[in-house]
Amino acid sequence: MKKLIITSILIVFALSSFFISDLLKQNDSDGKITIVLVDQIGDIVSRESYAFDETDTLFGILKENYEVGCADSSFHLSSECQKLPLGSRVLLKIDNVETDWMNTFIAIYINDEYSNYGIDNIPLKNGDVIKFEYTVVGEGGDN
Amino acid sequence: METKRMLMIAMSISILFVQEQLLAWIPNVQFSVLLIITFSAVFSFKEMVMLITTYVILDNMYMGGLDLFTMVPMYLAWMLIPISYHTILRKTTNETKLAVFAFFFGFIYSWMFIPFNMMRTGIDSFIPYLIADIWFEVVLAVFSSISIIWLFRPVYSTLCMLMGNCSLQPKRT
C-alpha cells in the first residue's frame, strides 16, 4: 500500500510538472515576430518579420522560410529534424549558417536575452525579436 | 580480490551499460540509479570506485569520444551514490529512504553538468541550463524513485544470493 501511495504521488508530481510546463509555453493568440540571422563573421545576413497565430511554432516558421538542419542522435547534421518526445530539437543549420555542435553552435537570443529554452519550447510573443547567432564554443554570451 | 567478486563487478558493469543503451531512446528513463544504489549496497566502496570508473570510461568511449566536460561531471555524480551510501545513508536497505535519495539525486546528477557546460560553451548564465534540463531531471528523479520502490528488494536479494555475503531479507534501518 505504501509503495502504491509513493508511486502515485511521484506520478502526480511528474504529470503536474509537465502540465505547468505546457501552460508556460502558450503562444500569444496572434502577432508578429522578427527573425534575425547572424553568420560566423557577425554580419546580419537576414532580418525578416513573420505573422503567427497561436497554433504556429518557431520551428515551423523557420522550416517554412529557411533551409534548416538539426542534430541527429549522434549530433551530426541531418535535414530530417524529427520532433523529440521530450525536450527540443537542436538546430545546427539555418540557410548558410552551419555549425557542427562540437566546436560551433547556433545560439538563440530573444530580445537580446540568451534564450532559456530550445527551439521547440520557445513561445511566440507579439513583437519578439528572435536572433539566431553562429557561436564558437567557449565564446558564447558576448551578445 | 576474489575472482568471483571480480567477475560479479564485470557482470554488473555489463548490465549497467547494456540497460542504458537499450533505454537510450527514452530520455532519462533508465535503471542506472537503481543499479548503482543496489551495487553500492552489495560491493565495498573500493569495488564501487572500480565499477564506476570502468563504467564511465566505457560509456564515454561508446557515446561521446571521451569528452572530459562530460566524463568528469558524470564520474563525480555517479560517485556521489557510493559516497552517500556509506556516509549519510548509513548503508540503509530501506527502500523509502533510498527512493527519497534517488529523487534528489535525479536533480543533483543533472546539476553536476551545469558548471562544466558553462565552461565549455562560455555562456556563463546559470538559469538557461537549469530551465533547459528541468523536465529531464523530473523524469530521472521520478523514474529512479519508482524503480527503487518496486525493484530494490528483488534486485538486492538476487545479488545477495549470488554473492553470498549479505542478508537475503534486507534489514530495514
Overview of this structure, please?
- The complex is a heterodimer of chains A (143) and B (173).
- Chain A is α+β, with helices and mostly antiparallel strands and 143 residues long.
- Helices cover 22% and strands 34% of the residues of chain A.
- In chain A, the strands form 2 sheets. In chain A, strands 2-1-9-7-8 form a 5-stranded mixed beta sheet, with no helix packed on it. In chain A, strands 4-3-5-6 form a 4-stranded antiparallel beta sheet, with no helix packed on it.
- The N and C termini of chain A lie far apart (54 Å).
- The mean pLDDT of chain A is 88.
- With 173 residues, chain B is an all-alpha fold.
- Helix content of chain B is 77%, strand content 0%.
- In chain B, helix 4 (68-86) packs antiparallel against helix 5 and helix 5 packs across helix 6 (126-163).
- Chain B starts with a helix and ends in a 10-residue tail after the last helix.
